[in-house]
Write a structure and sequence with these properties.
By secondary structure, the chain is mainly β.
Length: 891
């Protein structure tokens, strides 16, 4: 049996053995206490829970202390009915259950038979009296109305509304000092993070999302693999009634305004006449019953298409970068028995990108075509086996594929002109990668009443990762002898070649060997134990211990040390008045980073040997230079896994009607960062990965400290908002490099001024997001962001590659930044269907604030005498006011 088949068989057997589902939480829970008229505990009360999100009903009976609990509840709105013979029946309606949170709902029963219904606000703000995590939750209504414009209808964009989260240059989140490769993306409990880059791994149909939670600091022991955030996305499940939606958004160059600002050279910052683009993404969803109260289905599909045409700078028209893709999602939820659920999910996306280089310097024949795709089949099963025992398990396979290659085959040589840098004839590179993660997760929770109440949870998270890649130069050498032993190439080597010209005249050729595909692998296992101990109804102690171990299998003979770390976590929450209105919370924990498969790839025994030949006057090829070959890369045998120590202390208060304020101080210190650096700084023939480049254990460091204030408010039935203010410092000596950047390659050039403010640092940040339901069925959505300016650095090119920092990293600041986006939706009832007409305005104030600055002094430039005439000038600005149009139908 082949290895993949063995793994799949193991997963299926394990699923049967554990007979359960779930991983990272995809649910919330409800707790409460039932008392009599005098306030005494009332045991024996039957509590029945129902919801449109729940298959069937759930029941619980209060204990001797009058307490009850409902775990494993899908996020949504619930109804609780309290009954006891001889007592009045009471109903608490519109109870909100949020992802990864606990909602408390109490009841007091009087003697008699009169029923009483308490209607809770449907959009209530939940204060979790047991939580110690720094967390933001975005529910379905917020996603629908506070995601302004087509660009914001993406779960990555929603994450930026959370305090402490900012966007890097590639659209990935940076979270409280962690780099953009240190967060985990969890989809319905499955780790969907790209195993190669450790960034987001799949696209989603936005209207398939039920709720998103963003956990930053204070994570329980069941959560690992993320120094930054755990982004937990839970999808919709259908219901007992059929429902669906159709949403289409559109924007184009005709819907953007002309800019008013000028560059230093007098040219406009934004020239509308040079813009030619068009974006659209229709999406449809449908859900409903297969068998009422027994089986549901939900499906979603979207078709994103974008068209962007580069500016024609030369005597040819470059190809239009056309992105055409689809995103799909399907889900079947089945309850074969009461309190037991089996769920089958399938997530997939696929896209083709024509003229992927999007450059004015590529003639259409020399551009590339890219394709990408992801598929995630999942099966899970949750069960409440008794009032004291829960069990869960889940199995999934995450597969990613990506390729970029030429239009004219791999044997046609591309051409680049050294004078104009124009590329023609063919694209000169081919890349392909395929990664796969097999994952199995299981956990069980047991409730015990001794010295208070305990919820003991133990679990495991097992992963097997594969990464196969190939990367080579296309083309064919003009003379076969240029790819021979004479020039250092092994017998039988196949070479690629691209030609270079000078002002259109033949000038030379670059020859590179083609390496075969390589496969690297890793295995990871985690085991955790967590106790949620409540000695009384006011105090919660969350004590956990997580152990992670990862091993790597490079393609060659070298070995990477196994990574392992024991990670204690402890959090305490105290409900001051025992009514979930005033809660003090604190946390300490150690988190281990989840290293991507670029770590074993660093030890590839293959190398690319590149030789440049120039043409002489007789047309003969004369060798000019040669570089590359086998890398010789190594790994420090004492290499330790990167990890962080995290601390938080905060206070949550319900300040007035349906409004909460949380004030939390946070601190993170990252330990054992590693980078590649020269093994011997004097001769520098080889590189290795180490925690102490040039023997300096203090060279690689990072720390974040902040004070975060977050207000969540729904003061009326028509207004909902989230407001946050972050005061912080984010400092370190390295940004996201996948542990193989140029920052610490050669001493002393790459070791000076490396520590300073990181790119996510801004002393002050304000975020305001929300929506209002206005008269005449109009919904107004708004997003506002302001920061006090992010850092930029002063550098110059280093003769050893990379740059030298001439001042401490991040020593200078961009101007204060602000942006306001608004969206108006007008709903019209058409029988059972609600039709919405949508208009969105991005950058309402049409500000053109600088987004980046050229900090390069130029080769041999100094602070007093920059060689680069553009030094200190802005290189990018905000895009002026832009409009989106849309239509939406729901039933």
């Amino acid at each position: 049996m082949k290895a993949p088949a063995r793994r799949l068989a193991f997963l299926l057997v394990a699923l049967v053995v554990f007979a359960t589902s779930l991983s990272a939480a995809t649910t919330g829970r409800v707790i409460g206490v039932v008392t009599d008229a005098s306030g005494g505990a009332l045991p024996g009360v039957t509590v029945t829970l129902t919801s449109p999100q729940l298959l069937g009903t759930r029941t619980a009976v209060t204990g001797s202390d009058g307490a009850f609990e409902f775990p494993l509840l899908p996020p949504g709105r619930y109804r609780a009915e309290f009954t006891l013979s001889g007592m009045e029946t009471k109903v608490n309606d519109n109870i909100t259950v949020a992802l990864d949170q606990t909602t408390r709902t109490d009841a007091a029963l009087g003697v008699g038979v009169v029923s009483d219904t308490i209607t809770v606000r449907a959009d209530q703000v939940v204060i979790d009296p047991t939580q110690t995590t720094t967390q933001a939750n975005f529910r379905e209504d917020h996603l629908k109305y506070a995601s302004v414009g087509q660009a914001e209808r993406d779960y990555l964009a929603v994450l930026l509304q959370a305090p402490g989260v900012v966007e890097d240059t590639n659209g990935n989140p940076q979270v409280m000092g962690a780099n953009s490769g240190q967060s985990s993306f969890v989809l319905d409990g499955v780790n969907s993070t790209d195993p190669v880059t450790h960034t987001f791994g799949t696209n989603l149909v936005f209207d398939s999302i039920q709720e998103i939670s963003v956990q930053t600091l204070g994570k329980d022991a069941e959560y690992g693999k993320a120094l930054g955030a755990v982004i937990n996305v839970v999808t919709k499940s259908g219901g007992n009634n059929f429902s669906g939606s159709f949403d289409a958004r559109y924007t184009a160059d005709s819907l953007i305004e002309e800019g008013s600002g000028e560059r230093p050279n007098g040219q406009p910052r934004f020239n509308k006449s040079l813009q030619q683009f068009e974006n659209r993404e229709p999406a449809v969803t449908l859900g409903g019953p297969i068998v009422r109260d027994r089986a549901w289905f939900f499906g979603a599909y979207s078709r994103p298409e974008t068209k962007n045409v580069p500016v024609a700078l030369f005597d040819f028209t470059p190809g239009s970068r056309d992105f055409k893709g689809w995103n799909g999602f399907g889900k079947v939820t089945w309850a074969p028995l009461s309190d037991q659920t089996i769920t089958f999910r399938y997530t997939a996306d696929n896209a083709t990108i024509d003229n992927a280089q999007f450059s004015s310097f590529y003639e259409p024949a020399a551009d590339s075509v890219a394709s990408q795709g992801t598929s995630i089949p999942t099966v899970s099963y949750d069960a409440v086996l008794s009032s004291r025992w829960l069990v869960s398990a889940q199995a999934a396979r995450v597969k990613n594929e990506l390729s970029v290659g030429p239009y004219n085959g791999i044997n046609t040589s591309g051409v680049v002109d050294l004078a104009t840098l124009i590329r023609s004839a063919n694209y000169s590179n081919f890349q392909s990668r395929e990664s796969q993660r097999d994952q199995f997760l299981a956990s069980t929770t047991y409730y015990l009443e001794r010295f208070g109440s305990h919820a003991f949870k133990i679990g495991t998270d097992l992963e097997w990762n594969d990464f196969t890649s190939v990367n080579f130069t296309t083309g064919t050498p003009p003379d076969p002898s240029l790819c021979s032993e004479e020039w250092g190439y092994a017998p039988g080597t196949t070479c690629g070649a691209w030609l270079f010209t000078l002002n259109g005249e033949p000038y030379g050729v670059r020859i590179s060997n083609r390496n075969p595909a390589e496969t690297v692998q890793s295995k990871a296992q985690a085991f955790y134990a967590q106790d949620e101990w409540r000695p009384n109804s006011q105090l919660t102690a969350r004590v956990g211990l997580r152990y992670e171990q990862a091993s790597f299998s490079p393609a060659g003979d070298q070995r990477v040390p196994d990574f392992s770390l024991l990670q204690p976590r402890i959090g305490v929450a105290y409900d001051l008045f025992n009514n979930a209105t005033s809660v003090v919370h604190g946390f300490y924990g150690k988190i281990m980073d989840d290293n991507a498969l670029t770590l074993p790839s660093f030890l590839s025994p293959l190398g690319t040997l590149t030789t440049d030949f120039l043409l002489d006057e007789e047309g003969n090829y004369i060798p000019d230079s040669q570089s590359g070959g086998p890398s010789g890369n190594q790994v420090d045998p004492n290499l330790k896994p990167t990890n962080s120590d995290e601390y938080s202390l905060g206070f949550t208060q319900r300040v007035f009607t349906n409004t909460s304020l949380d004030l939390t101080a946070v601190y993170r210190k990252t330990n054992d960062i590693f980078e590649d650096t020269c093994v011997d700084q004097d001769t520098c023939p080889f590189f290795w990965l180490t925690n102490a480049p040039n023997g300096d254990a203090n060279a690689l460091r990072s720390n974040y400290r902040g004070l975060i204030a977050k207000v969540e408010t729904r003061p009326t039935s028509w207004l909902s908002g989230i407001v946050s203010y972050t005061l912080s410092k984010s400092r370190g000596s390295v940004e996201y490099t996948q542990n193989a950047g140029t920052d610490f390659d050669v001493a002393p050039d790459h070791f000076v001024n490396r520590y300073g403010y990181l790119s996510d640092d801004a002393r002050h940040r304000v975020k305001v997001n929300g929506y209002a339901r206005l008269p005449l069925a109009i919904i107004l959505g708004a997003n506002f962001n302001w920061d006090s300016g992010v850092p930029w650095s002063v550098t110059r090119p280093s003769p050893y590659g990379g740059v030298e920092y001439m001042e401490a990293r991040g020593s200078r600041r961009l101007p204060h930044y602000h942006r306001l986006d608004l969206q108006v939706q007008k709903d019209i009832r058409l029988g059972p269907v609600t039709a919405g007409l949508i208009a969105a305005v991005s950058n309402v104030l049409s500000s053109e604030i600088p987004l980046s600055v050229d900090g390069n002094l130029g080769l041999n430039g100094t602070l007093g005498h920059p060689v680069n005439a553009n030094f200190g000038n802005a290189t990018a600005w905000q895009t002026p006011r832009r409009y989106d149009l849309g239509v939406r139908f729901e039933f």
